[in-house]
C-alpha cells in the first residue's frame, strides 16, 4: 500500500512539536544562573563600548563645531513639541470660531441608562 | 470513498494549495503593513508618551459607568482593536459600553526621567479626570492589561476613596519573584541597572522585544513556517500580519520608569509586599476594596500563573472573581479563542456592575 501524502494537519503538528521542543531546550539553557551572568556581562560590555564611543564621537564633533546625535535629537524633539502645540492651538481656535459661528449646544452623547440583559433561572441571559 | 480516490483528492488539494501559496506569496511580499486599530476614535488627551482615546459609541443607550482600558506600557493598545470582527473594543461598543483607552507612544529623550509615579499618580488620574469631564459621570471602571493592570492596581490602592468602581485585571503579575526567566535574567547581582539607565536614557524597543522573544526563541520561526503553510488562507494571512505588526511595534521605555519597575517591583517585590510608596502614599493591595476580576491565561509565558495568582488573596475586595482560561498572554486578549473564551464573561461581569 502506498504511503499517504503528508496532510496540512501533519505539518502543523510537526511545527508545533518542533517549536515546543526547541523552546524547552532553549529555556533550560537560558534558565541558568551562568547564562544570566554571561548575558548581563555582555550587555555591560556593549554599554561601555557605546558610552565610550558616543563620548569620543561627541568630542570629535565638538572639535569640528558640529552637533552630536544627542543635540540633533534634542532639537528635533523640541520642534515636534512646538508642532504639537501649534496643532493644539489651531484646534482650539477652530473650536472657538465654530462656537462664534453657531453657539449650538454640546453634541449630546448616547443615553447612559442601559441595563444588563436579565439572567434566566438557568443562568443564561435573555 | 475508496482509498485511491481519497489519495487523489489529497494530492489535488496539495497541488492546489501549492499553486495558491506561490501566487499569494507574491502578494504578501508586495503589500504594505496590516491595517489595524480601525474602530473610529478621538484623541481626547495627549501628554507626551500618553494618549487617551475615546471610541465612538455605536449604540443609542450605553451603560452609565464608562470603561477605561489601560494598555501595557511596552506595547500598542490596538491589540484590543486588532482587526474589524476580531476587535474587543468593537465588541464592547456593540455590547453598550462607553469605551476609553490609555495608549502609549515612544517616549522622547526629554521624557527619560518619567518614573513609575508619573504613570500611576500623574497619567492615570489625569485620564480619569478627562473621562469624567467627557461623560459627566463621576464613577469609572478600569480594565488593565499586564503592566497596565499593575499601574491600575497601584492607582486603585493609592486612591481607595477615588472614583474607581470596578476593576478587571488581565494577566497582571503581582508576585514578581515568580516571573520565571525574567526574574533570573534581571538578577541584581549581575545587572548594572543604573549604568544602563544613565547610558541609554530611553530603554530601546529592541531590548524589550529581545527579552520577550528570548522566552520563546522558536516562536518567530515557527510562525513563519505556519504562515508559509497557510499562505493560501486569506484570513490566516490577514490575522498573522496584524499580530506580526503588533509584535514588531514594541515600545521603548523611559529609563527611570524601567529603573523603578526593575528595582522596586522586580528586585524588591515591594508591591507584592505592600511596601511600595508612590508620592508619599503606600500602595497596599489590601486598600483595594472595589469589585475585582482577575483573568489569567493557563499558558502565559510572560506573566506566569504563579505570578498572577496571588492577586485575589491580597486585595481587600469582598466581590472578587478569578477566571483562568486556556491560552497565552496575547491569545487571551485577541484572536478567535479570545472572542469565545474571554470576552463574553468579562462583558457579563462588567455589565451588571456598570449601571
| Element pattern of chain A in H and E | HHH
Q: How does the major sheet of chain A shape up?
A: none
Radius of gyration of chain A: 32 Å
Instruction: Specify the helix fraction band of chain B.
Output: 40-55%
Tell me the strand percentage band of chain B.
15-25%
Helical segment count of chain A: 3
Model regions low in confidence, pLDDT < 50 over at least 5 residues of chain B: none
Using the coordinates shown, work out and report the CATH topology of chain B.
Rossmann fold
Instruction: Name the average pLDDT of chain B.
Output: 93
General shape of chain B:
globular
Shape of chain A: flat
For the record, give the distance between the C-alpha atoms at the N and C termini of chain B, rounded to a whole number: 58 Å
Helical content of chain A (DSSP H or I, runs of 4+): 55-70%
What do you see in this structure?
- The complex is a heterodimer of chains A (126) and B (355).
- By secondary structure, chain A is an all-alpha fold.
- In chain A, 69% of the residues lie in helices and 0% in strands.
- Among the domains of chain A are: 47 residues; 34 residues.
- Chain A is built from 3 helices and no strands.
- The longest helix of chain A is centred in the C-terminal third of the chain and has 33 residues.
- The radius of gyration of chain A is 32 Å and the shape is flat.
- Chain A starts with 7 loop residues before the first helix and ends in a 25-residue tail after the last helix.
- In chain A, 2% of the residues are buried.
- Chain B has 355 residues and is of the alpha/beta class.
- Chain B has a single domain, classed as Alpha/Beta hydrolase fold, catalytic domain (Rossmann fold), CATH 3.40.50.1820.
- Chain B has 15 helices and 12 strands.
- In chain B, helix 3 crosses helix 4.
- Chain B is globular.
- The mean pLDDT of chain B is 93.
- Chains A and B meet through helix 1, helix 2 and helix 3 of A and helix 1, helix 5, helix 6 and helix 8 of B.
Amino acid at each position: 500500500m502506498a504511503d499517504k501524502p503528508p496532510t496540512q494537519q501533519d505539518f502543523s503538528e510537526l511545527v508545533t512539536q518542533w517549536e515546543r521542543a526547541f523552546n524547552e531546550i532553549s529555556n533550560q539553557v537560558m534558565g541558568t544562573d551562568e547564562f544570566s551572568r554571561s548575558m548581563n556581562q555582555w550587555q555591560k560590555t556593549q554599554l561601555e563600548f557605546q558610552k565610550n564611543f558616543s563620548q569620543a564621537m561627541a568630542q570629535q564633533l565638538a572639535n569640528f563645531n558640529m552637533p552630536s546625535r544627542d543635540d540633533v535629537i534634542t532639537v528635533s524633539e523640541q520642534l515636534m513639541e512646538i508642532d504639537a502645540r501649534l496643532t493644539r492651538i489651531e484646534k482650539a481656535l477652530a473650536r472657538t470660531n465654530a462656537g462664534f459661528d453657531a453657539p449650538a449646544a454640546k453634541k449630546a452623547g448616547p443615553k447612559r441608562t442601559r441595563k444588563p440583559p436579565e439572567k434566566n433561572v438557568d443562568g443564561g441571559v435573555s | 470513498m475508496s482509498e485511491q480516490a481519497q489519495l487523489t483528492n489529497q494530492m489535488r488539494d496539495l497541488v492546489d494549495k501549492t499553486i495558491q501559496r506561490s501566487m499569494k506569496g507574491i502578494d504578501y511580499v508586495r503589500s504594505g503593513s496590516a491595517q489595524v486599530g480601525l474602530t473610529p476614535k478621538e484623541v481626547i488627551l495627549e501628554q507626551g508618551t500618553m494618549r487617551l482615546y475615546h471610541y465612538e459609541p455605536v449604540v443609542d443607550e450605553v451603560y452609565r459607568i464608562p470603561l477605561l482600558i489601560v494598555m501595557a506600557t511596552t506595547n500598542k493598545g490596538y491589540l484590543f482593536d486588532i482587526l474589524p470582527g476580531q476587535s474587543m473594543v468593537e465588541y464592547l461598543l456593540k455590547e453598550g459600553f462607553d469605551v476609553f483607552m490609555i495608549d502609549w507612544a515612544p517616549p522622547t529623550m526629554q521624557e527619560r526621567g518619567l518614573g513609575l509615579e508619573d504613570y500611576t499618580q500623574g497619567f492615570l488620574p489625569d485620564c480619569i479626570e478627562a473621562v469624567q469631564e467627557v461623560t459627566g459621570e463621576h464613577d469609572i471602571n478600569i480594565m488593565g492589561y499586564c503592566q497596565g493592570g499593575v499601574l491600575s492596581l497601584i492607582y486603585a490602592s493609592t486612591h481607595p476613596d477615588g472614583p474607581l468602581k470596578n476593576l478587571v485585571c488581565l494577566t497582571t503579575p503581582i508576585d514578581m519573584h515568580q516571573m520565571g526567566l525574567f526574574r533570573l535574567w534581571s538578577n541584581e547581582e549581575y545587572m548594572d541597572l543604573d549604568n544602563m539607565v544613565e547610558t541609554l536614557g530611553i530603554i530601546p524597543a529592541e531590548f524589550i522585544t529581545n527579552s520577550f522573544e528570548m522566552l520563546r526563541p522558536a516562536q518567530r520561526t515557527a510562525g513563519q513556517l505556519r504562515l508559509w503553510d497557510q499562505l493560501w488562507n486569506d484570513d490566516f494571512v490577514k490575522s498573522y500580519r496584524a499580530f506580526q505588526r503588533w509584535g514588531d511595534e514594541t515600545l521603548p521605555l523611559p529609563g527611570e520608569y524601567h529603573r523603578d519597575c526593575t528595582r522596586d517591583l522586580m528586585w524588591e517585590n515591594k508591591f507584592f509586599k505592600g511596601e511600595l510608596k508612590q508620592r508619599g502614599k503606600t500602595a497596599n493591595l489590601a486598600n483595594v476594596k472595589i469589585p475585582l476580576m482577575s483573568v489569567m491565561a493557563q499558558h502565559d509565558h510572560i506573566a506566569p500563573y504563579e505570578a498572577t495568582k496571588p492577586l485575589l488573596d491580597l486585595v481587600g475586595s469582598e466581590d472578587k472573581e478569578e477566571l483562568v482560561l486556556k491560552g497565552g498572554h496575547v491569545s487571551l486578549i485577541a484572536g478567535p479563542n479570545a472572542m469565545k473564551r474571554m470576552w463574553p464573561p468579562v462583558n457579563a461581569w462588567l455589565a451588571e456592575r456598570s449601571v
